[in-house]
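Preliminary data (for renewal application), 6-O-phosphono-beta-D-fructofuranose complex.
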Amino acid sequence: MSNAHKNSLKSLPSWAALDAHAEHISSQHMRDLFKEDPDRFNRFFTEAAGIKLDYSKNRITPETMSLLMDMAREAKLPEKIEAMFQGKAINTTEKRPALHVALRNLSDESIMVDDKDIMPEVRDTLKQMDQFVWRIHSAQWRGFSNKPFTDIVSIGIGGSFLGPKLVSASLKPYWNNALNCHYVANIDGSHITEVLKHLNPETTLFIIQSKSFGTQETLENTKVARSWFLRNGGNLETIAKHFVAVTANTEAAIDFGIQQENIFPMWDWVGGRYSLWSAIGLPIALTIGMDGFKALLSGANAMDTHFRTAPLEENLPVIQALLGVWYGNFLGADSHAILPYDHYLRGLPAHIQQLDMESNGKSVDLDGSPTDYTTGPIIWGGAGANGQHAYHQLLHQGTRLSPADFIIPLQSHNPVANHHAILFANCLSQTQALMQGKTEQEAKQELLDGGLSEKEATKLAPHKVIQGNRPSNTLLFDRATPRTVGALIALYEHKVYVQGAIWNINSFDQWGVELGKQLGNEILHKLLKEPSTNELDSSTEGLINLYNGQGQST
Ligand code: F6P
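Predicted structure:
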């Protein structure tokens, strides 16, 4: 047996048991599981940190959960959870901790990294953010023509974009000032052009968001923003009033021309996709205020405490994660849908895509051996109820198994007519339809009742069968507040970590994005007609020629 197989997840005793159990479960329909157990909802319901989880509409029995918990313990999950909170170098390939939980540690406890307590720096940066937000909101900090700021432009990509944008949009009801907040991420010139088009440089503040301060898209966009500023009334002296930066690479930011006092630090032990809790979250604090930002942190901290202390069997991130392992590794699911039934949370799927897919889109385990089992799923989704008129057809009648998280507040921020009751009814009816489906007999009877002939009804009925037995989780909270949004995102962060721990992979590096960057630099030389000796495949060469107007010879 090769090293890969020797240490493989498949060698755990629970793997064989779950494999056998999957055979058993495959022949069971959730309709019957609900009939056999009137208390199924209560049995598979739990809550923590303001988040309620109904996981009864899953293809599980108590035995399933017990076997999954066995796997978690065999994979040393409790020890791995503790290792994260204790700042161990669980990001093994970069030899770093993954301590996003430290960013929301509101207690006075120390957290040590390399024998140094990192909490003083975290607290100082929170104070720096607080002062900055206050100075902007109170118009103490003004632009070069002495006007208060009206617009914030956050320039960043990936975790330096998705997290702050999602959270700020999720908490729109809590925006407590007149500031407009814009984001520039893409290197497509249309993005920054559309943002700058309507702005006044006198009253625009740029936040350059980049942990590495080396991301091409962000640096190129910052150069455009800077030249726009200098062309429209700004000068080298007044840049300091209009440009601040959030980075772990202070030196590069200073080299770029950002004043040292305008730099908010972040640290190597915070991954980009886990960084919205750091000063990368400045757009959040500028829109909802520092009290709101601290409430966001405290919500995440409440989920952290739950994750660290709750028994695995009652642990929301653990339950969510193990269900994903069950579907991905034993029932053949390749994707997972995130369906927020909340207009403000419509950006959640995009953030969780990076969080999950950049963390667990790996195929080599911690020992460097290829995994002989599947790992991170494809994350997709969108706002409900819109998705019901777009992709739910596949969820109901497609050939693929795609478990889905339905996420909905019990109360809307905007009680209009019966809208929230209708939205809530849609959310529940979708999970119910996915679970119970519609048999051919039921479909045919409906058609007969509708007046179709026996022949027509017999012909059409197969097309109206809904198999059902399609799993979903329903996550609820009272309202989408800073606390509950913080807890919800922390829940997904910990779910991702648990899955990575089970799959024995490193959830905190992202070597896969390096090759594209390297090849991109080579191709750019060719597109800019700079000297390059690089041999290219005929496709890339042909496409470059098209770009350079040397089209195809007809
Ligand atoms: O996609 C790779 C990546 O490094 C992400 O992990 C990160 O969020 C993004 O690029 C931006 O990186 P930075 O914050 O260093 O500009």
